[in-house]
Design brief:
The protein is mostly helical and about 130 residues long. It has one domain. The chain has 4 helices and no strands. The chain is globular.
Length: about 130
């Protein structure tokens, strides 16, 4: 396991717990009727998918820094297809709760993607500095 995965994993775990707590507060303290009932499952799903994709990106950066862009595009494309496939299957079988689920899904996608990109850009910059010296 790449040594730089542990800080990301810890950060994404803390983020997931914070999002779960915020979701709990929104669901219990407001009159928001359209809150998705399976919000915690969504957070767990994003936690696993994002952690797996980030681990694969770190390994790709260690193995072949010159081909990292191709690996990044492939891993990101696979991740996107997995997420969209999951979304499509869920909406197909649960039409009545689709709108809140799609809204939460999109918001979580943005949050987790931004965090992943911040960490991977930092990692690529750091590995580029070490290989140039």
């Amino acid at each position: 396991m790449p040594k730089n995965f542990k800080p990301f994993f810890l950060w994404i775990f803390i983020l997931s717990m914070a999002l779960a707590f915020i979701g709990f507060l929104v669901k219990t303290q407001t009159a928001y009727a359209y809150f998705p009932s399976n919000y915690l499952f969504l957070i767990g799903f994003y936690f696993l998918v994002t952690s797996g994709a980030h681990l694969a990106l770190l390994k790709a950066n260690e193995t072949s820094g010159t081909r990292f862009v191709a690996y990044f595009m492939a891993i990101t494309g696979i991740k996107l297809f997995v997420l969209l496939g999951f979304l499509g299957v869920y909406v197909f079988f649960n039409r009545e709760g689709a709108i809140p689920f799609i809204a939460a899904f999109g918001l979580l996608y943005l949050i987790y993607t931004v965090i992943e990109l911040v960490f991977i850009v930092k990692e690529v910059k750091n590995s580029g500095q070490h290989s140039a010296s």
